[in-house]
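User: Hello! I'm new to structural biology and keep hearing that structure can be predicted from sequence alone. Could you demonstrate with Peptidase M50 domain-containing protein? Please show me the input and the output so I can see what each looks like.

Assistant: Of course. The first part below is the input, the amino acid sequence of Peptidase M50 domain-containing protein. The second part is the output, the predicted structure written as tokens.
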Amino acid sequence: MSFSLAAPSAFRGNLLPPLSHCTSCFEFDLRFHRSHGFPHSRCRFTSFKLFRNPRSSRRRGIACSVTEPPNGSDEQEKEAYKNEETLPSEDSSVQSTSPPVDGEQLNEFSDANKDQNDVQSLDSDEVASGSPLPGVKPQKLDEAIKIPKETIEILRSQVFGFDTFFVTSQDPYEGGVLFKGNLRGQAAKSYDKISKRLKDKFGDEYKLFLLVNPEDDKPVAVVVPRTTLQPETTAVPEWFAAGAFGLVTVFTLLIRNVPALQSDLLSAFDNLNLLKDGLPGALVTALILGVHELGHFLAAKDTGVKLGVPYFVPSWQIGSFGAITRIRNIVPNREDLLKVAAAGPLAGYSLGLLLLFLGFVLPPSDGLGVVVDASVFHESFLAGGIAKLLLGNVLKEGTAISVNPLVIWAWAGLLINAINSIPAGELDGGRISFALWGRKASLRFTGVSIALLGLSSLLNDVAFYWVVLIFFLQRGPIAPLSEEITDPGEKYVAIGITVLLLGLLVCLPYPFPFTDETLTSF
């Protein structure tokens, strides 16, 4: 069987059915696969010939004769196929009883088949597996909220494109759609282009996310209606709950700085007048906490991130565990998240280290100060190293020394900053690790940190309370960013790593003995 084309330019590529519907196009034995919404039937095209379309003298089409095989076994079908091949091609077209089928009809059939599959896949209530939008709770949505099929076609053909993100497949995601494909160029620039086209077409009706698929670590685009991203409301006003936590934290900070009340905390209610003795220490620690939170809010204002009211967490052991501050909007990218997350600890460490140095240098105001055993400085690598550097031979094993209370107060502030710098969940350290190395690495850091804190809690009650707090309140996951693919700049990477290292140095013990030999080698 053979044929020839007189004018190749007149043969239009869209007249052929998609390759997914044929098995051997060159032998002209085309078979349509089973598709949803159509009864399964096998058609055999026994002859092809060109014909002139009567509607236009310049257009040519393809006429094909279609025969329906009788019901029977596969062997009978193969035998019938062999018999058909022995017939002359010019006769086979005459023997056919089916009318010619225009190439445009083939296209309509293929398009209808494709549309039917799209409708069934997009109308499904099943959420795409490995969904890369953690932190967004599934919810029952009305049909009016779900993205219609016509809009999805516009997204594929007019919003995404070869120059930004070439879509190869799509899956339903709650009220939106998850698009898989190939990212073109830099992620940040592609995101800006796609966002602009999306806004030009639909205004602020939809929100775009450019994320990493946890299944294969490849870029994916997610488009969801903005109505599904409304922040959760609480039964108790945020400011009221934050104020209640703040009052309790003030009380615990005062108790923490009154040595007479350390052995019996409940006796503080019978000796409220003693609380004034803890006011200086409480103010210093509160100042470090306040500067920490101020750093967050200044960085958030610079990046356009909205923060909620900070919830200060009280602690009987160290006065406070810091504050829990919610991010109320969607962070644009990982660099902005790193700026906001690192600004708080960086400000807190800066002030805490300054006060710690002043405490070692300045003599106590009353001439006595606080008497502590030298071994206490083994509890922190950073504090012990600074103490040995500044105190020299005065710091010896087994001897008691008098230090300015400012050392203890500043140390407590550094410890609170260090606890918040642990790379776990939605702590500052967890957000920093996410911004530096991505979501998957952040989840691994969270698991390792919680496990280590769990082991430490066997020996330290502070670690026990902190691991409970992380597990129930701060374990995450971190809400999705608008664009999670682009890495932060090198300057901000250095800042983030510095914050994590400072937290590690504060929490790790000082392993070297305080002796003269150590000083000489130091």
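User: So the tokens describe the shape?

Assistant: Right, they're a compact way of writing down the 3D structure. Reading them back into a model, for example: Strands lie at 44-52, 60-67, 165-173, 176-183, 206-212, 219-225, 311-315, 319-324, 370-373, 400-403.
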